[in-house]
UniProtKB/TrEMBL annotation:
GO CC term, one of those recorded: connexin complex
Taxonomy, superkingdom: Eukaryota
Membrane topology: Multi-pass membrane protein
Protein name per UniProt: Gap junction epsilon-1 protein
TM annotation in the entry: 25-44, 75-94, 114-134, 171-192
Protein family: Belongs to the connexin family. Beta-type (group I) subfamily.
One GO-annotated biological process of the protein: cell-cell signaling
SMART domains documented for this protein: Connexin_CCC
Record Gene3D superfamilies: Gap junction channel protein cysteine-rich domain
Subunit structure comment from the entry: A connexon is composed of a hexamer of connexins.
Subcellular location(s) of the protein: Cell membrane
Organism field: Erythrocercus mccallii
GO molecular function, one term: gap junction channel activity
Keywords, alphabetical: Cell membrane, Disulfide bond, Membrane, Transmembrane, Transmembrane helix, Transport
Amino acid sequence: MSPNYIRSFSEGCLRPPTVIGQFHTLFFGSIRMFFLGVLGFAVYGNEALHFSCDPDKREVNLFCYNQFRPITPQVFWALQLVIVLVPGAFFHLYAACKSIKQEDILQKSSYTGFYIFSVFLRIVLEVVAFWLQIQLFGFKVNSIYMCDVGALEKKFNITRCMVPEHFEKTIFLIAMYTFTVITVILCVAEIFEISCRRLGFLKTQ
């Protein structure tokens, strides 16, 4: 791929053809990623080290932590961010290969339809991620986790585990849910903006 294609691709990703799309890129690329990268590490970085059960033994702690966290929240949210970026990246790669200028995307019906489809796919992926997050993490992190250690062939089957910084994690969970909702709203608003431009209610950029 030539440098011109790479430049067109990066410009398309950073400067979508709609005003709301540009705001979405700013929100998604700076605020959401910063929140996850910096604050997410501060909240979840040492969780496994401070997760302790009764009795406080390494094998019990490790077994129960794996049961408590089938996937760590940082990994889940990082995968969510990457997957949600894929539809837009494919579209802008296509636009770069076809030498489509950003201002021309809303002028031709086929380009507009393809772009709307990529935005709609982002909405679907965000909704699926929202549902998965509910299944994996719920809406609240309790201070005590009851772990089933029967598989370790212990004398006891259920043990109590202490979850560190559970209140901070609850706040972080709500924040990530909120970010997902905001992103979905921005995507819906972007489709609405495109429709208004196509119908002539708004001037094209």
